Amino acid sequence: MKILNTKVELVREINQLKSKGLSIGLVPTMGALHQGHLSLIGESKKRANITVASIFVNPTQFDNQEDLVNYPKPIEEDIRKLESAGCDILFNPEVEEMYKDHEVWDYEVGDLDTKLEGELRPGHYKGVTQIVYKLFKAVNPDIAFFGQKDYQQFLVISKMVKDLALHIKLQLCDIVREPDGLAMSSRNVRLNKEERDISVVLYKALEYIKQHYTELSLQELQQNAARFFEKNPLLNLEYVKICDKESLDLLQEKSPNGAIALVACFVGKVRLIDNMIIP
């Protein structure tokens, strides 16, 4: 696996590969890799000739500076995992490489910036689109892979690709879960044992909604799911909602096109998100 740290090196390498007619798959990450990330690498290897992973903890998408400081950065372990997964290129730049002083990013995210994660984390998706656009321009991928756990992020990036007429296919990949159902996340390593044990409540609440979707009203489903979080003082529920899969508008009535249930909750000091698509 080649490890590149500058955009100049990366662009030169990508141009050489594309001149040979090879297709490029991109898996953007912030490191602290787990099996969910590696499943994206596997999908890229199936669909593209060359797989590029990026590791960059992007400061502009953190609304909480303490969260940025505490975000895990086990780069040596990440490199070993990527090599074992068969990744071809790792792009691992410093902040100074990706951002210039007083840089302005004027892309407007739109309605998705006012709902759920957008509402609770002002500026988050502005930062996400800024860095993903930079990665797209540097890597020039044919296809980019994203995990369903960050479903709203996928919708935001899909909108940006359409708005800016970028010729990149986006692939949404299934959530990878622990045996008890907890969605794999880089933040899970920050949970202590008690917090880890109760964090499965996010999955249980979503599973409850899915199992009872046909028999209960939307209001009952959301109210009952919210009660899962009332029993433990370590849990601070931010939302559990059933939404339209395309707009993320709160559903007012059940749709033949299905729905998506989404949840965000602090477990101790660690904020976790999860979702489940309802057919």
Morphology: globular
User: What low-confidence regions span 5 or more consecutive residues with pLDDT below 50?
Assistant: none
Mean pLDDT equals 96
Order of helices and strands: EHEHEHHEHHHEHEHHHEEE
**What is the annotated CATH architecture of the largest domain?**
3-Layer(aba) Sandwich
Measure the end-to-end span: 39 Å
Helix/strand class: alpha/beta
User: How many domains would you count in the coordinates?
Assistant: 2
Work out the helix count: 11
Question: CATH H-level name of the largest domain... which superfamily?
Answer: HUPs
Quick overview of this protein structure:
The chain has helices at about 5-20, 35-45, 65-70, 75-85, 95-100, 115-120, 125-140, 150-165, 195-200, 200-210, 220-225, and strands at about 1-5, 25-30, 50-55, 90, 145, 170-175, 235-245, 260-265, 270-279. The chain has about 280 residues and is α/β, with parallel strands linked by helices.
Annotation keywords:
three-stranded antiparallel beta sheet, Pantoate--beta-alanine Ligase, Chain: A,domain 2, Rossmann fold, 9 strands, 279 residues, six-stranded parallel beta sheet
Description:
The chain has 279 residues and is α/β, with parallel strands linked by helices. It has 2 domains: 2-173, Rossmann fold, CATH 3.40.50.620; 191-271, Pantoate-beta-alanine ligase, C-terminal domain (Pantoate--beta-alanine Ligase, Chain: A,domain 2), CATH 3.30.1300. It is 38% helix and 20% strand. The protein is built from 11 helices and 9 strands. The chain has helices at 7-19, 35-47, 65-70, 75-85, 95-98, 117-120, 124-139, 151-163, 193-198, 201-211, 218-227, and strands at residues 2-4, 24-29, 50-55, 89-91, 143-147, 169-173, 235-243, 259-267, 270-278. The strands form 2 sheets. The protein has a 6-stranded parallel β-sheet with strand order 1-4-3-2-5-6, sandwiched between helices. Strands 7-8-9 form a 3-stranded antiparallel β-sheet. A hairpin with a 2-residue loop joins strand 8 (259-267) and strand 9 (270-278).
